[in-house]
Give the backbone structure.
Amino acid sequence: MDKHPSYGVLSQYISKYPQAAGALFQTYNDLKLAQQWTDLEVIEIPGCSRCALRGRRPNAEDLLSVVPCSLSESLSTDWIRTTFQDLGGPPHVYLAINTEDSSIVYYKISPGIVKPPL
Amino acid sequence: MSLIAPSRGGKGSQKSGARRAENNRIYAHPLPLVFLPPTFDSAYSPARLLSLVGLSAARVENPHCEGVFDPATRSVWVTNERDSTILWRRGFFGKGDLSRSEPSWLARQINARKAAGKYMTSEEIREKRRAERRQFKLDRAAAIARAAAEAEAAFAEGREAAPVAIPSGATWKPPSSGDSALPAMPPPEDEDSESEGEIEEEQPLENVEHLQLTLQEAWFLLWNLDCLTVLDPHTNKPMTLSQIWHTFLTAHPIPPLLRADAEQRFDNPFLVHYAAYHHYRALGWVVKGGIKFCVDYLLYKRGPVFHHAEFAVVVIPVYEDPEDQASSPFTLSNADTFSWTWLSTVNRVNSQVQKTLILTYVTIPARSRVSPDLLSSPACLAHFSVREVVLRRFIPARMRD
């Protein structure tokens, strides 16, 4: 992993939160290289002992927040509430669930009921 | 079943004959090992004598692929292109970490740089399909709004509302755009992709993608077929079989105080999932991850390239001894009795995509009956048993035959 170009940006977060290192690395690479997100930055959310990512989709204005986690973890609503708090109360948060074969499934989580757009 | 284009009876018939022949040629080998017919040099060559007796003298060609173990992602990375191509094309092992399936990130970047992309990768086809579906939803919402407004106006005037056509998935056609549909990208020959990289003038594109193998896939390849070497990430030296076994058993995250237990327990998640993976691979199925459909594995008859997966597998561990479950440091998912709502949800999700749900029960041997010392070698796998229950929803009113 340390030979990968993204390691330079992520190394301090990987050593600080080793449990969430794999999920952070996979999600960062997916957003930056595959989805081509811009203005990608890493934000620490100490309440959940991991880091979140914030950036923009290509050709879009809104800043979106993504919280990486692994399939083997079990989450609680408290945990989700803490991510909203630590990220400064964004309108919604994307949960990036990482698997060992490098598939990532994104779920959009909002605090409260949201009507579908169409 | 596509809602955008009229369904023509499955994915297979949407490909041209030439494309199918090409796929049959490229994905001809179901496993990385290739059996070559023996060469008969003379009438008395050893190969011919053996074949007279009924024994085969076929030579086995072993590609000897190499991968690196990564502890953070709990997987084996295959970084060199020759090995990742072989492992993907012979058995669909692994997944490109920046792609949907086959490592195609470099090809997509090259496509994006060229002004007129001649071919589309599967990711680009997916984007096009999503854009069409978004447009369909907008059109449908607009039509519904028009119908409602028309009904209001008609009610106010006391007349019949004029009918407004609301597009459905079967009748909607995407608005004809300037560029014609691009053909799907044929799998590139190795030479072509290399020369394209050289033609690139702007910035030499470094391929930062690797093929990622799960621990189960890597263990299957190296234990059963002996065609994979795994390097230690710190020393870059090949690991021995027992070192790899030990590493894979202790890869799953558990609290540090209980770490010694990982190698003494049969309910290690690696073992439980490997039992199911091996069971289906040995029967000839191509087994891939099923996170997109809320299941553990998807079973393909020949491979993702040929047809959609027909079966979705949920691995349900069953403890022979309930004491083991109480004292377990691992919390295996689906080990407790599941609820009807969960089962109905998973079944419904998979019925929507025309997959049959299979519940695979893996029985975990009791530590009281089988000695945990067996865990020091793969011999312990013989004590796991795998049983299947196939699930289909039955609707009495509709299914009369």
Remarks:
- The domain at 260-401 of chain B is CATH 3.40.1350.10 (Trna Endonuclease; Chain: A, domain 1).
- Residues 24 and 364 of chain B are 39 Å apart (CA to CA).
